[in-house]
Design a protein that fits this description.
The complex is a heterodimer of chains A (298) and B (439).
Chain A: E1 2-7, H1 13-19, H2 23-31, E2 33-36, E3 49-55, H3 61-73, E4 74-80, H4 81-86, H5 98-106, E5 133-135, H6 142-153, H7 214-219, H8 231-234, H9 241-253, H10 257-263, H11 267-271, H12 288-295
Chain B: E1 4-7, E2 17-22, E3 28-34, H1 41-44, H2 50-58, H3 65-80, H4 86-117, H5 128-134, H6 136-157, E4 166-167, E5 170-171, H7 177-189, H8 191-207, H9 209-214, E6 222-226, E7 237-241, E8 248-251, H10 253-259, E9 260-263, E10 272-275, H11 285-292, H12 298-311, H13 321-341, E11 357-365, E12 368-376, E13 382-388, H14 390-408, H15 416-429, H16 434-437
Antiparallel strand pairs in B: 1-2, 2-3, 4-5, 6-7, 7-8, 9-10, 11-12, 12-13
Helix pairs in contact in B: 2-3, 3-4, 4-6, 4-13, 5-6, 6-7, 7-13, 8-13, 12-13, 14-15
Classes of the chains: A alpha/beta (298), B alpha+beta (439).
Amino acid sequence: MRVAVLSLSSCTGCQYVLLSLEEYFYTLIGENAVSYAPFLLDQKELPEVDLLLLEGTVRNGDDFRRLREARQRAEKLVALGTCACFGGVPGLADMVSEERMLRMRYGEGATFEQAPPGVKRLLPVDAYVSVDAFLPGCPPGEELLKDFLKLALSGNLPSRMGATVCSECKVTASPPSRDGFRRLLSAVPEDGKCLLEQGFICMGPLTRDGCGALCPSSFGVPCGGCRGPCDEVLLPPFQDPCLETLRRLARATGLSPKAVGEQAKDPAHSFFKYCLAEPLLRRRRPGGTARFLYRLGE
Amino acid sequence: MADMVISTVTRISGNACIRLIRDEAGNPREAWLQAFGYRGFDIMLRGSHADNLVPVVSRICGGDSVFHQVAAARAVEECLGMEVPAEASRVRELAMWGQLLERHAVSLTVHSLPDLLLPSSDPSLRNIISIHRVDEEVVRRFMALKSLGTLVLREAGGKAVHAVNVVPGGVVRDIGEAKRRELLERMSEARSLLVETARLIKLLLRRNEDVVDSLGEESAPCLALAPGDGIGLLGGKAVIAAGEGGERVSLVPGELRASIEESNSGHSHIRVAQIKGVGDVLVGPLARVNVNGGYGSELADAELEELKAQWGFPFRRVMLGHAARILEMIHAWEMIKGLLEAPPGEGLRVTATPAEGEGTGVVEAPEGLLVYGLRVDGDGLVKGLSITAPLQFNIGSLERCLLEGARKAGAGTEGEARVSVLLETAARSYAPCIPCALH
């Protein structure tokens, strides 16, 4: 197969996973014609390809042009990584308008003659072009990517369906600790026990599986939601990641959801870290954009 | 005469283009590295709880993720007066050296090796996939060094990209005894590979001496952390050294942050960082060895002596950055071994009650100093955040090098393709990290 890898605005982390596939990397470059991958090859123009792995988000007109070209020249287009699938962490910038962000960074009246026009809103790539398959993950783990590529390169694109991180988590469910709402900065969770039940914000119940629940199971760190929202969140009647987590935390702490919500003072960063740009969740964002802008001191 | 534009620059981290501006006679007047698409991490994090700071800043750059995490964590720790336990510092350092090894291996092997190995081949052949087709072994051997770095990073950080082990106050997990032994075993196998790679890079630089010379020298003062006993990634004062025997200025992290002056270049979203009263400074592997005079580890210093004898010291030719990278990989290897062999310390993390405060986090990232400034309020929410990435310091030097290269290549007489190759080679000498600079 003719394969291409294209990066829009991104952290390039997904590329590092591609380079970390060990033996499979050599199989990949040996059995397929990798014809475009700017981090590997000098090829400047994207040729016609059978499979294109696209990572990152559309930040400006340049990214949009490249995405459109990619769609036109690729038989199958795969959104690789949570940025491409749901907007990812860079989607948090959606809290501030592009103009204001540039003003805050570069000062009043700063101009960049050759800068491509910025986008008004950050959106996942499927808001611009049709996408044939999604592989979320920040970044997707090596095994996950390897399995995905094996399937994709044999002509079978895996679907987006999935269970939740909790279904893979090895910690034990325990009676609620009733220790109140807690943050990692000020409290050390008990090992091997459900973090939500201990009063920590863990997005496991609302995050798609596939990571092996590494963070909560092996590190005792709450799930941040880096594989993106699970199907229950993205399909009607659309669960609200913030409200659902607050309800669970309320059960664990014995407080009311409202009381927990008042203590979790950064709803965008805590509940929508990887999916604030996802259009399906726009109406679920607590308080809408205005509240976030207020929190930024506007 | 119309500008010459190389879009996009390939085999670097991120998306950027090079624009060469020429006068009517075709002589290069200015050369720019242009990158657009500032992502606003420092702005979007306002209002975020300190808990969310570390995982979010990690997403600025996959290749330097641990460095962003540690710099941010250190800023939080300074804000709240947290004393990180020694064992946690050790695990963090291991993760950082692991990622440095990985990052340098990618810069050298995937990005720059084809330039050094096949300087006059067709661009379509100048990549590791083509090299792999004719000599599988050489690519595998080089990539083994990248894998070694990834392995250390995965064990110390929990994940190879966007580690999960670093939290404000320390780390959440130690490396188990069995893993420690396994890592040590893997490290011992890498010695000959590193020495061999260093020999090859030195040989290739000698063979490409005309290219090394045509990219010119950088005379700006060097800025790096100077822990006192060689090159380190954490701790010590930041030192600005003007040259051998020249003036040296030492700054504690807070002073360093206060003396950074950022300005717009007008042609790129990468803001230029300079030091007040000094101007442009060079950061990164070359600056680190120039400031510290040596690595502080046996094997790396032995290799350094050989380089000093050939190229003089301090290193001024920008392309020697590649040599500094491989030597730093050797140093990283020795540091990792030392950190793994040392008896485990006590304590992994401390906690703190949110309080108003201000702090600075400074670390040496693979391509230079990374500086975080942070203010938090009484709830532990971020009130202000500033990030200065290595490429912001180096951009002035990089653009001077591009111009020098274009002038030496004689844009009028040689084909555009030749100039284009040279300019991209010049840019890769700095291993520019666009995602970091466009945080």
